[in-house]
Specification:
Number of strands of chain A: 12
Largest sheet of chain A: 4 strands, mixed
Distance between the termini of chain A: 49 Å
Shape of chain A: globular
Oligomer: homotetramer
Order of helices and strands of chain A: HHHHHEEEEHHEEEHHEEEEE
CATH architecture of the largest domain in chain A: Alpha-Beta Complex
Helix content of chain A: 25-40%
CATH class of the largest domain in chain A: Alpha Beta
CATH superfamily of the largest domain in chain A: paralog of FGE (formylglycine-generating enzyme)
CATH topology of the largest domain in chain A: paralog of FGE (formylglycine-generating enzyme)
């Protein structure tokens, strides 16, 4: 597929994700950490306008001067941002105006892309990856926001849940292994710097922990057993009165959960999802096993299936050796978040096709659960 | 006008207030204390359905069973409420569905009203007054929510501001005066219990404090002068870094303010609005005068013009002698708020025609400013 | 007794209240609203130094320049205050140094008092009343702070609880009554301005509500019954998980409470204490009666016994007609608190002898319970 | 030295650290994260009683049954804890009683130690190390608490600040290095599991960043420059209005700081201290360098002087390969804190003699500053 077709495909996918929405849904923001669909749609468009069109397309006229202010995100270097927790209050510009903005930018981008400049192409690919990342967020943010509605609306006809196979232990030998991106094609700055890591012998599970297995953990009383939890995890459980994964509901012993397709009976064979790092870690402790490090995951990933759930690792999100922040606004992309977050590896049902690779490093604070996060277990050998 | 016509007129006025809105605006809720337009439209409708149709119209079929849950307000007696600060998350039911709900209930109400039952008529009048009260809130809530939008949208073509006349002192003699509602027609339970109050000699201003007069107060440094303020007022000023009325903006010495009709240059002749009780009280102290009590206001009100701004009094919102809470859900209307609030008297530009009277008691916490609140001064004589 | 003897007696009483303390107790501050014993002892001393000695005793040398800063309270006009919730962190000056400060000031005050200047005498009486007011606070603050100690220490050998007599209804006729201080002697500015109030016919109870009566209210499930409560009261109950008066503890059906004399079995005949205004009001509603206004209390108080518990009234703390704030620092005494507080009348077991009178107006926010507050009921007649 | 002498020496050092205190100081707790001196003295004693005497000394009688409750810390497995932020309210037991408790336990411990049981000896060494760890906390907690006193009291006659030498870059070769404790003697569980780490070529500074160097960073406007900061660091700076290290004060261009020995003029040659991880990281970014990892620190530490300041590393506090939590209450020691904290290496002026070693891993949340934390810089070579 040529770049223009790929560009159009990515852009259309964002629209597809909103195909079940009514206009009233586009402003939903159920917590400070999530953003409204309209904001995702406009922000990804602004990214192309600001970082590509303004600089590379002669005579390009900015659609609306205030959009630079309204749809900027965390790029502190680009000017005053709108307050993050008030994005849901932006009823104007309207959905129609945002859609018009998308068309306007798409037309200009088409003109630019067909000129075939390689430097531009590189930025276009970055913009497409940026939009794909937001597509994942759009879907999990939307699920979270619509869950607050007592009517339990359907988000999209996507089957979240497929059965896991029986687990096998995959053994990995001790030694020095290469880590980080080396292939051709796109990757983020945080994956770069191919380097060596010493790995000690370990085994990793071929499958994810299932809802049924997690239910046993719940039923054993684990949410009331402090010794299973990290100290902050235990505070989190108590302060928020947590007793199950996000979206789970119990009614007289029967469990159901909110999915993209509405409320469903809990499927015990499907991989558990929407758990915090604290829960993943407590589950592993309860099983007498542990979470893998991100390096263990990367060196073993070719031997198991992944892609349904982002998988928590017991690695903090830190720079690789030689990591350097790029100059300018694009340099704010990843490095500034390298503290107090844990690495997730893999991909999820919300990840757009073509947006996953073995070296991808996702990262979240340990308490957050609204993405499709799961648990894969590991254990140390001979230590 | 007959009751049915009056009913229709009240109901249509709610729609009129939303005539400039796009669908995305109907869910706006900029703080816990305000409600989205859609919620006001549905809640006032639910009130007619729940307290009148369900009980008085045979064979009436409830539009949607969950609306009872969704659009209930503070009536704890009627069942589990939706969390107040999450009303803005109710993207569904849609605006169209709420409008359909209004039509459905209006049709049933019309059937019922023409039957002419006097007991029903009394409840209909209560429901109409309830909706009118929400119209005032709808407008001030909407102004507050749209103000958060950096695009400063117009709310409605209403001229908020007309010039004040020069002030005269109106003197009132000492003595025992009657207070409370005695006429025929509708009033709320909190106005009832006609009773005697001993009034000491005082004078009251014929006009409201203007923007120009208030600006002198600001320019004197009053917001940095603790001795002018009540202790809690001073804390409020400091914690919230208050330095002017709500909606005022200063730009290199020029003052403008956000109005229903968008941003405007500050009019020094118009009555000041959107001040807290703390600011009203500090202003009076700075002038060497004081706020009137609600009783002083009531016995003198026939001698001055009022109706542009709700006017802060130095009376706490307390029960009149013999006040009793009505049994059942309607009894939760007023009495339960009788602590920590101050009484406002008069009416405002947002008050619907026919919804004001001399005995009306409005009430708010002293820090709130988003209603159209103003300042009328008084002073004691010969004490 | 002459003024010097009275002065000494008041000052000695403060020391007496601390007679059971160890040095470690003098800094206790269990919440922002209470102050440590050492602070009370020093602040009352500072008051004499700052407002009397510095101005009236020639050649008086201030004990320590920083005490002006450390032991000031809310008198914003006197300079930068220490942060209120950090008074407990003031381990220095030591208890010994504070006691030395007291002696030093007492000696200078003695010199000054014997000179017999009438203007000074007036200020001395104000300072003595100020210290007596702090004695009441010192005792209730100390009880509150020591209650946090799992060892339940004894505060003082005071019997808090004596049995109530059977209740009689005392009827009062309708009419205009005089309110406020008129006698000779000392009173606060908030009691002044003898004025007329119109009273409607009512009855008031001769006795206070007892622990036994209040227990019935608890056992009826009243703390889970929203309709009995003011709206803010209900929020307070739920947010703080309130289910009984402060200091009460239930153990398998047996009730005990923490008293100045340590933990005791609950005495059902004694007057209930340590209730919030919300609880007092909910109790009255549950009984089908009501709280009196402060005016009803004042005109009827000669016909019943009072003095064990401060009694909540359903009157907000507001200025009397003609109230004016005194100029200078002393003017900050009372007027600045006239919003969001309710009036209490009477006195309590913690009130020093000679510090109570029928016109005394105490005031607190409706949620506070650590003073010795009780409930006297009233009802309207013929309305 | 034999074990009994070592035991006595450690215990006496705790008393020495309190030698300048008055009784009122022993309860100071200026924030939830710090503990009062009395609590440290009692808790370390309780540790010996609970984990050694109760289990190993026949006929040992517990000093006071409630001390188990009062002086427990985070060992959730041992019973209900006292609320952490209310330790300062424990005026009883008195300082004298706590000192008596220390003597009582010391006597019993002496009896036990001389019996020479090797299993007991191991636990005694753990208890001694536990007390030494608390000595470091006691001193930094006390400095923090006394700093809140406007009188700026002296904590102890310790010279915090000695000049740094000029910095040299020490180069380390690429390769696989051993990490973790291997020697004989005591170490914590988090240091164990000697294992291999692959190190890339880097250089590390021979000296710490000085106050003078840090002052240049301040004067360059770095605290107002978002691009220098991690995202959470920038929020922390803004929300807390941070503009210098803790304890620094500026007065018309002159800088001073609060030290254990009272307020002093800032020494530009001494190592900077009391900085957060965010500040350390921003400083490194500003210099175009970086913080070392804990592994880089460990493999190079023999080539530079350390021991004045705990040194922030850019390593998150995570388990070493094969780390396992010990069973029982002692197992709660370290593993439960392995999330959201950063590793510090080295030791500080507050570290007791004999309580430091190259493999020691200290850890704190990135925002905390009240310990003696400093900055050592590193840089990557040839990457």
């Amino acid at each position: 597929m040529n770049l223009l077709d790929e560009y159009k495909k990515v852009r259309e996918h964002s629209n597809f994700l909103c195909s079940h929405l009514i206009k009233e849904d586009y402003s939903l923001q159920a917590s400070e950490e999530v953003s409204p669909p309209k904001w995702h749609l406009a922000h990804t468009t602004w990214f192309f306008e600001q970082f590509i069109l303004v600089q590379s397309l002669p005579n390009y006229v900015i659609k609306h001067p205030q959009f630079n202010f309204l749809f900027n995100s965390y790029y502190n270097a680009m000017g005053k941002r709108t307050v993050r927790n008030q994005r849901g209050l932006m009823s104007r510009p309207s959905v129609d105006e945002v859609m018009e903005y998308r068309s306007y930018v798409d037309e200009a981008m088409s003109q630019l892309i067909i000129q075939g400049d390689p430097k531009t192409a590189e930025l276009v690919v970055l913009g497409m990856n940026h939009e794909q990342q937001h597509q994942e967020l759009l879907l999990s943010d939307l699920k979270f926001s619509l869950w607050h509605n007592p009517l339990n609306p359907q988000v999209l006809s996507i089957q979240e849940y497929t059965p896991e196979k029986e687990r096998q232990w995959i053994s990995i030998e001790e030694g020095v292994y290469p880590i980080g991106f080396e292939e051709k094609g796109f990757c983020y700055d945080n994956e770069m710097g191919r380097h060596s890591v010493y790995i000690h012998p370990f085994s990793i599970s071929s499958s994810l922990v299932t809802n049924g297995q997690y239910l046993e953990f719940i039923q054993s009383g684990a949410y009331r057993e402090s010794r299973l939890w990290l100290d902050e995890g235990w505070s989190w459980v108590q302060q928020n009165q947590i007793s199950s994964p996000l979206y789970w509901e119990e009614n007289e012993g029967d469990w159901s959960y909110y999915t993209l397709d509405g409320m469903k009976k809990l499927d015990p064979k499907a991989a558990v999802s929407h758990v915090s790092f604290y829960e993943a870690q407590a589950y592993a402790t309860w099983r007498g096993e542990r979470l893998p490090t991100e390096f263990e995951w990367e060196v073993s990933q070719s031997q198991f299936e992944w892609g349904k759930r982002w998988e928590w690792t017991y690695s903090a999100y830190l720079p690789y050796p030689g990591f350097e922040v790029a100059p300018g606004a694009l340099g704010e992309y990843n490095g500034k978040f390298m503290v107090n977050q844990m690495v997730l590896r893999g991909a999820s049902v919300a990840t757009p096709a073509g947006h996953s690779r073995p070296t991808y490093r996702n990262f979240f604070h340990p308490q957050f659960r609204w993405q499709f996060k799961g648990i894969r277990l590991a254990k140390s050998n001979n230590l």
